[in-house]
């Protein structure tokens, strides 16, 4: 049975090596409502890994787990674990183009296997009550016509998935690195807009190239949600206006210095648990981006990293 999606008007993209629990706690000091995503976690790490790959801070809500895998049984098992941990959503990665991910038969290569994704959705939704969503590209390699994208959406939606986050670039699985795949293929926003027109019953969010909240507002004239990635990481205080502008929450946002002070108890707590200070502070380098003294802030944190 499909569940209603949580409010995802503005979300922060899953970013490998970046959106860990420390980053998400920090971003939550700036916006109370933006939906936060974990880094992609594979089913193998959750099932066979020795670390706690699902741990997060309760203050991070709303928070979604992005899951990498293609075996329906394993995906369902991990979704069930995510629900036990208290995640608000599980998202299937159908967008990462790296060789390592392809070798594991998940990520963007699954756009060529919509039936596999649909089988995962069916099995996962039978185990959990939280939303199961999909993040994809607009196409891969030579499967990059609009008809290829709509067939993928139709098959997966028929399995019960009603929420799609679409990175508005295709992915070249051979010939481009993951970094190049974030910049080289052109953005095709109109194709995502067209999806929403064709499937008005689905919740469609857009990802890719969004740098300002004005950009986000323009996209929201056509779509249900906007996911912002690298711009949030390099300039996190962009989130300070999100609650008021998109969620009608007029509470006074923390100033940048207030955000720093709010992080101090967390830093002390995490150090006591064995965390290294730099693992937290590195996410805060961009807090004073564009401000007088911003370079001094970055240099000080980097020099005093230990």
Fill in the keyword field for this structure.
306 residues, alpha/beta, TIM Barrel, Four Helix Bundle (Hemerythrin (Met), subunit A), 8-stranded parallel β-barrel, 14 helices, 14% strand, globular, disordered N terminus, tRNA-dihydrouridine(20/20a) synthase, DUS-like_FMN-bd, tRNA binding
If you had to describe this structure to a student in words, what would you say it looks like?
It is a single chain. This protein folds into 2 domains: about 10-245, Aldolase class I (TIM Barrel), CATH 3.20.20.70; about 255-305, Four Helix Bundle (Hemerythrin (Met), subunit A) (Up-down Bundle), CATH 1.20.120. It contains 14 helices and 8 strands. It has helices at about 20-30, 45-50, 70-85, 100-105, 115-125, 145-160, 180, 190-200, 215-220, 230-235, 240-245, 255-270, 275-280, 295-305; strands at about 10, 35-40, 65-70, 90-95, 130-135, 165, 205, 225-230. Helix 3 packs across helix 5 (about 115-125) and helix 5 (about 115-125) runs parallel beside helix 6. It is globular and about 50 Å long. It starts with 9 loop residues before the first strand and ends with a helix. It comes from Paraglaciecola psychrophila 170. Its EC number is 1.3.1.91. Belongs to the Dus family. DusA subfamily. Catalyzes the synthesis of 5,6-dihydrouridine (D), a modified base found in the D-loop of most tRNAs, via the reduction of the C5-C6 double bond in target uridines. Specifically modifies U20 and U20a in tRNAs.
């Amino acid at each position: 049975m499909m569940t209603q999606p949580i409010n995802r008007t503005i979300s922060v993209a899953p970013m490998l090596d970046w959106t860990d629990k420390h980053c998400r706690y920090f971003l939550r000091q700036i916006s109370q409502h933006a939906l936060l995503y974990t880094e992609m976690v594979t089913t193998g790490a959750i099932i066979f890994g020795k670390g706690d790959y699902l741990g997060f801070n309760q203050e991070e809500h709303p928070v979604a787990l992005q899951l990498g895998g293609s075996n329906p049984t394993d995906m369902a098992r991990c979704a069930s674990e995510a629900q036990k941990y208290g995640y608000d959503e599980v998202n299937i990665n159908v967008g990462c183009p790296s060789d390592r991910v392809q070798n594991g038969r998940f990520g963007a290569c699954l756009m060529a296997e919509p039936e596999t994704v649909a089988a995962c959705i069916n099995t996962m939704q039978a185990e959990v009550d939280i939303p199961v969503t999909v993040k994809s590209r607009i196409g891969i390699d030579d499967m990059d016509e609009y008809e290829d994208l709509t067939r993928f959406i139709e098959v997966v939606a028929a399995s019960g998935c009603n929420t799609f986050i679409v990175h508005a670039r295709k992915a070249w699985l051979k010939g481009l690195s993951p970094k190049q795949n974030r910049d080289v293929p052109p953005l095709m926003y109109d194709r995502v807009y067209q999806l929403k027109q064709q499937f008005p019953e689905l919740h469609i969010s857009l990802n890719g190239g969004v740098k300002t909240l004005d950009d986000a507002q323009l996209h929201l004239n056509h779509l249900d949600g906007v996911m912002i990635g690298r711009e949030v990481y390099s300039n996190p205080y962009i989130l300070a206006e999100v609650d008021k502008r998109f969620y009608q929450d007029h509470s006074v946002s923390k100033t940048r210095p207030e955000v720093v002070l709010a992080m101090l108890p967390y830093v002390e707590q995490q150090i006591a648990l064995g965390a290294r200070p730099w693992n937290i502070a590195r996410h805060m380098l961009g807090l004073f981006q564009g401000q007088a003294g911003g370079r001094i802030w970055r240099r000080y944190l980097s020099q005093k990293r230990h």
